[in-house]
Design brief:
300 residues, mainly beta, Gamma-B Crystallin, domain 1, six-stranded antiparallel sheet, four-stranded antiparallel sheet, rod-shaped
Length: 300
Amino acid sequence: MACDDTCSGDQCGEPAPEGFYGPALLWVGRTVDEPNCPGSAPTRVYRGYETADFPFGCSPCRCGEPACALPADLRTAASLKCDGSPVSVHEPRDMLNGTCVVPSGALANDHQSIVLGATRVTPCEASVEPPPVPQFNLRWYRSGVACGGTPKEPTCAPPSTTCESPDQEDAFARCIMYLGEGEVTCPEDYPEDVVLYDGMRDERHCTPCECGPPTGSECSLALLSFRDGACGELITAGTASSDAPGCVAAKPGETPKSMMAVWQVNQPGSCEPSGGELRGEIVRTGPSTFCCQTRPGENG
C-alpha cells in the first residue's frame, strides 16, 4: 500500500484493532541489557516488568539455653514425713548456689519438717540467627520496553492506514498493546502474546520462630539444714528434683536455724527450634498484554 512522501522510511498498515494501542516496537529481556529505543521509534511509550528476581530467605531459628530453676516455694509441713497441711510458706530463691539463709520461724518444733518443691526447667527463648551476608535489594530480572514515534502529518494515503515502524529492529518485535482488562485474544496478524506488569506486591514472610519444650533435662537440689545460724553444723539433708519435692525432717530435740540449697545435678537439656519457613509469594500487579507478530528477541 503506497504511502505519501511524508512517511518516507516507514510503512503503511492498518491501524490497531479496537481495544488495542499501537503498533509499537517491543523489546523484552534482562533488565541490565535494556536498550535505548531505536531511531525509527525513538519514544518510549511503555515500560513494564516480566520476571521478578527478589531473593528472599528466612534466617534460621535458634533457641536459647533452658535453665534449671529453684522451686516456687519452700514450706513447713505439719509432720516429720513432710505431709499434712502446710504451716507456713517461705521464699527459696535466695538459697541457690550455696547461699546460707535463715528462714525465720521455719520450724516451730521438732515434730515438723521442711518441704522444698520440685525443681523446674525454664523454657527456651526463640530468636532468629542473623544472616551471614546482607540480603540483596529487590529488583526485576526481566523487563520490557515499548517504543513508538510521532508520525508526520498526513501519515498515509488512504487516511484509514497509519505509519508503522520497520518490521525488524534488532531485538524488537512489532506489537500492539491491549488497553482493556481481562483475558486477551490476539488477532491473527499479531499472534504472540506477551504479558508485562507495572509493579508487584511482595506477600512473602517467614513463620515465627518457636522453641519446643526442654528435653534431656535433669535438675536436682540438695536441701541442707543446720543447727546454727551460719550453715556450719549440718543436721539433715534432702533432695528435690523435677520428679519429687525435697523433704528435710527435724531431729528430735533440734530445730534448724539456717538452710542452704546446692545443685547436685544441673543439666537443663536443650530445646528444638521450629519455624522460619517461607510463606507467601510475589504478586505481580498491573498487567498489560501485548500481541506481537513475533516474540520479542526472535527478530534478527
